[in-house]
Amino acid sequence: MFQVQVDWLDEERSRARFSLPGREEWTAEHITALMRVLGEIREQMSPGVPEAPPPLPQLPPLHAPRYRTVLHEFSGGSLIQFRHPSLGWLQFLLPSVERRRMAEHFASQEAEWEHLHRPLSP
């Protein structure tokens, strides 16, 4: 859709300068494509995205995001898509072993919730 010119300002790729030649008008499609390109640039930068999530609370979580999950026909894993209001639909492919692990985590959380909020006996 458009070319982004990136100049790395140091060998570690911790700083970059980029330009968007010829772009004067922006549509939602342009912004989506730009976010994708910026994500690719970020992936090449250092330090990388941390392996562990940041401590809570960082930003308020999205409450009840729309999602879709389907069985991935080639790997047997689960394709999960979450709708982020500004980033669009984000896709994740979970191998079947991770799907089982997540199901166990959810079941454990459900049991913990029920234990904490069980009705008091008269």
Describe the overall structure.
This protein has 122 residues and is an alpha+beta fold. It folds into 2 domains: 5-44, no CATH class; 67-116, no CATH class. The chain contains 2 helices and 5 strands, in the order ββαβββα. The strands form 2 sheets. Strands 3-4-5 form a 3-stranded antiparallel beta sheet. The protein has a two-stranded antiparallel sheet with strand order 1-2. The longest helix has 21 residues, at 96-116. The chain starts with a strand and ends in a 6-residue tail after the last helix. The mean pLDDT is 89.
Chart the SSEs and their pairings.
Layout: E1 5-8, E2 16-19, H1 28-44, E3 67-71, E4 78-84, E5 88-94, H2 96-116
Give structural attributes.
2 domains; three-stranded antiparallel β-sheet; alpha+beta; two-stranded antiparallel sheet; 122 residues
**Proportion in helices:** 25-40%
Biggest β-sheet strands, sense, barrel: 3 strands, antiparallel
| Order of neighbouring strands in the sheet with most strands | 3-4-5
Count helical runs: 2
**From N to C, what is the helix and strand string?**
EEHEEEH
What is the beta-strand fraction?
15-25%
Poorly predicted residue ranges: none
